[in-house]
Amino acid sequence: MVLVLIAATAIFVLQHKAAGQNRRAMARAMAGHSTTLRSTDPAAAAALALASYRKDPAEEQARQAAISSSGLPHPVLFGPTGQAVQAVAAHAGLLATGSREGVVRLWRQAERNSPRAQGRPSPLARLLLPGRRVVYSLALTHAGHGLVVVDSAEIRIWHLHGTRRPTPGPQLHASGNARDARLTRDGRTLAAACDDGVVRLWDLTDPQRPEAVGELPAEHRQLVSVSLSKDGSRIAAASSEGAAVIWNRRSDGTYRRADTEPFRTSVTEAALTPDGKRMAIGLDTGAMWLCGLDPRAVCTRRYAADHVGNFAAGLGYSADGAYLAEADSRGTLRLRDPATGDVLLSLPNPRPLQSLTWASDRSTLYTGSADGGTAHRWSLPLPVLLGHTDTISDIAIHDRRSVAASAAHDHTVRLWSTRDPHHPVPRGGPLRHPTAVTAVALHPGGTRLAAGTADGTVHLWDVTGTPRRLDTDKRLDESITSLAFAPDGTGLAAGSLDNRTALWHLPASSRRLSWQALFAAPGSTAVNSVAFALDGRLLATAESDRTVRLWNTHSRGTVRSPLRELSGHTASVSAVAADGALLATGGQDDTVRLWRLDPSHPYRRPTLLPRPLRGHSGHIVALHLTAGGRTLLSAGQDGTAALWNLTRPERPVLRDSLRSPGETFTSAALSADGTHAWTTAGTTGRHWTTHAPAATSRICATTGDPLTEQQWHSLLPDFAYVPTCEGHTTPDG
Question: In order of start, what are the domains of the chain with their CATH numbers?
Fold first, then answer.
């Protein structure tokens, strides 16, 4: 009997071990697939990361995949809706998609404040048009009671009645020559672009009795798109014969053709800003042009925007005019600056895009794919800082004030509300400077901001309300590389490429910078980073001669001899951070070194701890210590930000890595509790959730169950389908 029990126990243990190994192998496979898809299909990558973590939360690769997905925006997928989503329309929580094979589907989006508001839209109705028609365009009438369908046979209003059975309503146009149709914001005026070179107008004040109110000849045939200003006072149309045409409304309500912008190639899209003062034009070469329109609707200034892809299959300004969205026919969704056309953010899509529309709520964007029949919903603001038009050089955050500050070479500092860090929003306009802003720091009280510029000037700002410049000081001759406030806020240090570090005294009641000391060690070539240590008693400088120097912050005047010079790196030291009794330094040798300080004897030589931290394949650009020196964030040019557990500094442990494919990080910041990180690369900044359970819950809260059973089997044919968001709880914040 005893032998039987022993045998049974052994079998159970072996089976349990085998099940664990199998679960771990599945989690690793899913995590690996997620990593592969991250740069081409972020929605699928996030879904696979979630599935991996749900399969085995203890697996390191699964955890890495989950937190790495938190910093990459991903849409909600719905569909498939047919072969190609030729048209998308959205209004008042109702969505409509139209396909190439003549199928129109209606979807219901949950109310904004409901628990399911961010999840996948639910199917509501399906309409199969007769005679193998192609759907070209859709528009939902005011309050969503009717749907305008533009297809290859006619233009017709369909009555929705709030039921699952749409019924045919009035026919507006008995020809299939229309290619696009749009409604004004109030739903009263419908404009349709037709390939006979005419824009046709209807009054839909009463959708039961629509009235044709005008025909606008363009003098160019093959009109393929149409756009209206918010109030309908201006209309623009694109012609594949190589023209963008603009009409302006007269005082009597009729329209006159105001301008025609000729091009040597086909125009695929024309889009007006909501106020009608600017027009974006997409060409079949992929080029994009913008026009500034005068009061007569004449293009008085025409200029080229960034040319970065294939032709625009969809183009449109958000309802508040904050963004210009472009659906690249090869699959990339771009958000552009509405005035300059500069690309702010590129969002990958695995399939070519065919259509694009903004919802009237100003924060939701829908796209349709040219194959596979899927549509996507992007909810703005994304976990990304958007607005800079040149490289972001530095970022600073203040947890208690829920604010972030980003500095960029576009001569500006931008402030962001991070009350909901997953959806940062601009806080006022940019703080403008005469030259590129190369460093930024926030005062420990969150009331003041310091900005350093490329000409060696430090600017002090009051940011308690409407920001105002308090003082400037050009103490240094070359670009400011780093800024740091003392922990008690009474000091400010700035490092410069001119090999000097300036220190100012900053009393709490003072609004001006009071110069105190200038540190300059002979033989150094540049100061790359500065940090206060031991409650502000020391200032550490990371310098290009492979040395870290410690200075006495009670010094005055010009000081050429540091307290200590620390050697440990084999290349330029590019970053330094301090917290508690720990000092961290990072260099262009791709390593991080740790040093133990002595709080009782602050001027004693620090002890170099034996184990360098190796988690990067590129130069270290930023370091942040939090929680009394127990957590370290290191960011490298390789697009990796590493989180280190330093509970035992002599035996540091790599906790997590945040990876952003294809990006070169320029700076980074970490919240005081270590649960939120920010990185910058190019013109954007990203927010990351560093706690895997919170990251996975955020995916569920954003997308609902991100994979249908059909999508699951397409991505994971060898694994049985498991709903990944069952029983999840929405994280706070």
Answer: 2-73+696-715 (no CATH), 76-381 (2.130.10.10), 388-515 (2.130.10.10), 520-682 (2.130.10.10)
